[in-house]
From TrEMBL:
Gene3D superfamilies: STAS domain (3.30.750.24). Residues 3-112 form the STAS domain. This is Anti-sigma factor antagonist. InterPro entries: Anti-sigma_ant, STAS_dom, STAS_dom_sf.
Amino acid sequence: MDLTLATRDVDGTTIVAVGGEIDVYTAPKLRDKITELVAAGVYDLVIDMEAVEFLDSTGLGVLVGGLKKVRAHDGSLQLVCTQDRLLKIFRITGLAKVFVIHDSADAALAGS
């Protein structure tokens, strides 16, 4: 399974809609996209993971790395995720306390 990435800008926040599997093979594509956005001066990101079917430790590492990149510029990286199997990964690893996880992109944009 491949990884799809689609970005859109909403009032100064960039939403990256991710689809497919984030694993050791596809995670570099997401890391490159985040790096490219930060290099372009985009520091407020919402990673929409609603269409993600699989996430492994490499994918988690990319998300943590992305968070560090935007925080270096006083930015934010928030997640949109409602899938129990993915949320469980964030809870087990303790990353549910590190990331702000919303149930929709609209909620993330509203900051709720």
